[in-house]
Design a protein that fits this description.
Strand content: 15-25%
Number of helices: 14
Shape: globular
Oligomer: single chain
Number of strands: 10
Distance between the termini: 60 Å
Structural class: alpha/beta
């Protein structure tokens, strides 16, 4: 029996080691792409408002996981706050109001957002203008020149206030009158009298009415803003083009969750699990809008046209250019 040469033994060992290493790397890649997605773990910017209930449903009900996605969420104050995070790649998808998305996509040549899903549409009292119970102000006209809290400036909140004020002969100054306050902190802003009114988003409007006697002076989801698309989910053009299967998986899971949210009881149950300070009583009595299960270009164009009317952009917007192409 011949004895193997030391070099042959060493060579064989090295070959075996390389083969095992390659197999290990291959296994990792296979795990990543076993579901056919370009990216299995994504980071999603979201808000602790009723509008994003479907995201929580998709997570808690395993809808994202069923599509091969692991979703990590990052809470943002408003749509405008998510834009630099999307642009830099720190977020893969972000919930955001259409005003902020259209404005940034029009004015920032380096940012090309693509809407992948509609998120929420207004309904009566989903967006209101509220004051303290003992406030002398009774109507939106009384708030001319007063400080009003909004989640972020030059977004859907300010547009709704301005759109409601115009028919009453009131013009609101974006820089002088609007104060940025996160929705959960608006109650304290009213109590401290740092502002005279707040643009309340549900469920916080209902919560403020119950906890401190705040009262509504204007329902902002009426007139031109009735049934208005408020916010949706977006990614960058680059992300959509590079990860079509991941985008499609995200869309499928979210669409199922949006459909589930049509059942009010489902939203009532999930809301207290992620919106701090919101209990079952508030959830059951709040005003609720709609959770679309498909993108409606004509409806989204209403937002763009309203933005043009109030000079949020310098030229008309064709929203078709903001819609993500059908994914694989």
């Amino acid at each position: 029996m011949s004895v193997p040469h030391p070099r042959a033994v060493l060579g064989g060992a090295l070959a075996l080691l390389l083969a095992l290493t390659a197999a290990g790397c291959g296994g990792s890649d296979d795990t990543k792409s076993a579901n056919g997605l370009e990216k299995s773990e994504i980071i999603l910017g979201t808000m602790t408002v009723a509008d994003t209930a479907p995201v929580q449903l998709a997570i808690s009900k395993g809808l994202f996981k069923a599509e091969g996605l692991t979703v990590k969420t990052q809470v943002i104050q408003g749509g405008a706050a998510g834009i630099p995070l999307l642009k830099s790649g720190r977020l893969d998808f972000s919930f955001g109001n259409y005003v902020s998305l259209f404005t940034a996509g029009t004015k920032d040549p380096g940012f090309k957002p693509r809407i992948v899903a509609e998120g929420f549409r207004s309904a009566s009292k989903t967006h209101t203008l509220m004051v303290r119970g003992d406030s002398p102000y009774q109507t939106i006209k009384d708030l001319a020149g007063k400080k009003i809290a909004v989640n972020t400036k030059r977004n859907i909140s300010t547009l709704l206030v301005r759109a409601a004020g115009t028919p009453q002969g009131v013009q609101f100054d974006e820089d002088e009158q609007f104060v940025e306050v996160a929705p959960p902190a608006m109650e304290q802003a009213l109590k401290s009298k740092s502002v005279e009114a707040v643009q309340a988003i549900e469920p916080f409007g209902t919560q403020m009415a119950a906890s401190m006697g705040a009262r509504m002076v204007a329902d902002l989801a009426t007139g031109k803003a009735a049934d208005l698309p408020i916010a949706g989910y977006a990614a960058t053009e680059k992300f959509v083009e590079k990860n079509p299967k991941t985008v499609a998986a995200f869309q499928r899971a979210l669409t199922k969750a949006q459909g589930m949210a049509a059942d009010r009881k489902v939203v009532e149950q999930v809301l207290p699990t992620y919106a701090k300070g919101i209990d079952a009583k508030v959830a059951s009595s709040m005003s609720m809008g709609a959770y679309p299960t498909s993108l409606d270009t004509a409806a989204l164009q209403r937002v763009a046209d309203l933005m043009s009317e109030f000079k949020y952009v310098d030229k008309p917007i064709d929203v078709k250019s903001f819609i993500a192409s059908p994914s694989a």
